[in-house]
Known about the structure:
This protein is α/β, with parallel strands linked by helices. The protein has helices at about 50-60, 75-85, 105-110, 120-135, 160-190, 295-305, 320-325, 340-350, 360-390, 395-405, 410-420, 445-485, 490-530, 540-550, 570-580, 595-600, 630, and strands at about 10-20, 30-35, 40-50, 65, 90-95, 95-100, 100, 140-155, 195-200, 205-210, 225, 230-245, 260-265, 270-275, 280-290, 305-310, 330, 535-540, 560-565, 590, 605-610, 620, 625-630. The radius of gyration is 34 Å and the shape is flat. The relative contact order is 0.07. Keywords: Coiled coil.
Amino acid sequence: MTLGRAPVAFRxxxxxxxxPGSSAEAGEPLYACAxxxxxxxxxxxxxxxxxxxxxxAARYGVGAIALDNVRELGGESEIAALMRSLPxxxxxxxxxxxxGEQLSVEALCALTGLCGGKPSPLETAELAALLAYQGVGxxxxxxxxxxxxxxxxxRVPGQGGMSRERYxxxxxxxxxxxxxEIREALEKxxxxxxxxxxxxxxxxxxxxxxxxxxxxxxxGLVRQERGHDLFVEIEPVRRExxxxxxxxxxVREPARPARSLIVGVDPGTTTxxxxxxxxxxxxxxxxxxxxxxxxxxxxxxxxxxxxxxxTDVEPPPSYVRKLAASLGAVxxxxxxxxxxxxxxxxxxxxxxxxxxxxxxxxxxxALAAAFKAYLSFKExxxxxxxxxxxxxxxxxxxxxxxxVIRGEPVASAVVKVARKHFGIEPRAxxxxxxxxxxxxxxxxxxxxxxxLLSENYALRRELRELREELEEKVSALHRLLKVRGSAxxxxxxxxxxxLESVNRELERIRREHEELQREHARAVYELTGLVTGRxxxxxxxxxxxxxxxxxxxRPGALADPLIYVDKELPxxxxxxxxxxxxxxxxPMVVVTREAVDNLSQALPLGVxxxxxxxxxxxxxxxxxxxxxxxxxx
Length: 633
């Protein structure tokens, strides 16, 4: 069985399928095995154990092991152990997981024409290898892009006198020299790492490196050793759970919580970590042994976006400096190391009313560092809220606070974020801002605008992600159909129909995206007009009455006394509604569809009717009618 030219994921692949009656739970299972090289099956084995599979993989230099179901290898810990026994760099592929969906082996046979009916284990192994070779399926991610190197004493000297102590010191110095040797090799190769050592006198009883590179990157740099005096073990870091990535798919950053975080870190063999939000509230507090920066980064990203990394000592430890640099976070270092009494006081203040409690000194020191950092920024963070409120700008405050943390002046940060979110280009330096820009719009208008902006951005992001996901599925299905070597079967017809459906869905999303872009452009135009004072917004009467009922709008609290009568009401009800909304001390303008003559007598004193037909610039959008201020005046 061979395949023609097509996009190739791996040059050589070893396919497996478990034999009937065999099970990973019942001992070492048996598999059928096929090796594919350059699209051609070069070896078939009907019965093989895993130890023989590892030898075959090494002999042929395969790039991947492919199965129809990776659980045939066992549970997650068994899969990790088996993958560790393979040559470094070999990937694991599940061919039945296509673009995030599970297909049966029978369906793959029908779709590709490589086999018919229910295939035998050997045919299934061949199918898996050929499909993985062509880039069909998903890579099973077992390990992180990290490797742990452990160095320790090969044996501990028993009881004895001075000679025992000399021997013990000799081994510990040997361990220290080996650690220095590995450290030099990693630095020469420019590989990032963390190092945790266990000291004893002048030597080390052991050390652990966490290297931020896959196992294969260490080939030729560090080798495993197991001797009488010391050992060196090299292990890839296992993921907390198996993950899947479609072959050929772009690596996408997972969605993360948007909140900004201040993180205090007390590094060491046991590392303490304290996480606060920008209000100084404790979000997480923990300590762990041998906590590498990679694992800590993943944990922090599950909680939010780290913007400040804090330490309690000066100068800051290398671990903390590297962590801040990798996260793009501001590094906070106190002007002098914090005393134990000061750390105790800061930690108690931070924990007040939080429900958390300190379990060790590492957590205390980390919490003190984080809270000290928060206190240093607190006044400016509160200034951001006051400045945005003073200007009446409904902006994402955390973005402005992040700019301030990074050194931007408060007023400048608020204006920058407002310009970004409203799509406003800055004026030339010599042009003064109009006085209207300093006026504070009504609270109801501000909150509604903020909600519209938030929904707009969220929907655009959701559509973009959905479009990317569907494009990946189309690409995967095209690769699968290219493999087909026989006339279309009913399964193929079904899949092609599904592909056509996906393409229609993509076209619908494209149209929705274009419509959303038009809506966004309109929103930017109207909101820019509001901020600059060129446009004004008349709240629809129906919306105003709803806001009154919900308690979101107080009688007489409209910042711009403008109302658009969007629905016909009996004159007495209209008069009562306008009386609720009108500020007795100010006149009100009412835009109406009806002739002014019909309303003048019924309107309350101080209410000026303006017919909609006389306003050329009027544009209805959402809960508002937008108007040119000059035209209205």
